[in-house]
């Protein structure tokens, strides 16, 4: 399970955007249960997404399917990164920088 901060200004409609961006990037409409949105796609047996406390973070839990081809894995990873960019408002580079503790650069 991983928690990602959401850029200020994007927290207001986070729950609606999570579901919309899942459909937009993976082409699969998520099912919703208890505030958690779930899909299966490509190399992901399961992708669960929910809003964190105060809608200031996104909590993501994944389960990978290791039996798929490298092409499927590459496509799934690309779509997942673009999904995270859209939902959090931070690029991959910005997320990595924010995840590092101060003085680790």
Number of helices: 3
Instruction: Provide the β-strand percentage band.
Output: 25-35%
CATH topology value: TATA-Binding Protein
Please state the CA-atom Rg, rounded to the nearest Å.
14 Å
Q: How many structural domains in the coordinates? A: 1
The assigned CATH architecture is 2-Layer Sandwich
Strand order, sheet with most strands: 1-5-4-3-2
Q: Indicate the CATH class.
A: Alpha Beta
Task: State mean pLDDT (0 to 100 scale).
Answer: 92
SSE blueprint and pairings:
Blueprint: E1 2-5, H1 14-26, E2 31-33, E3 36-41, E4 44-51, E5 57-64, H2 70-88, H3 92-99
Antiparallel strand pairs: 1-5, 2-3, 3-4, 4-5
Helix pairs in contact: 1-2
Question: If you had to describe this structure to a student in words, what would you say it looks like?
Answer:
The model has no long low-confidence stretch (mean pLDDT 92). β3 (36-41) and β4 form a beta hairpin. The protein has 3 helices and 5 strands. It has one domain (2-91): TATA-Binding Protein, CATH 3.30.310. The chain has 105 residues and is of the alpha+beta class. The protein has a 5-stranded antiparallel β-sheet with strand order 1-5-4-3-2, covered by helices on one side. The protein has helices spanning 14-26, 70-88, 92-99; strands at 2-5, 31-33, 36-41, 44-51, 57-64. It is globular.
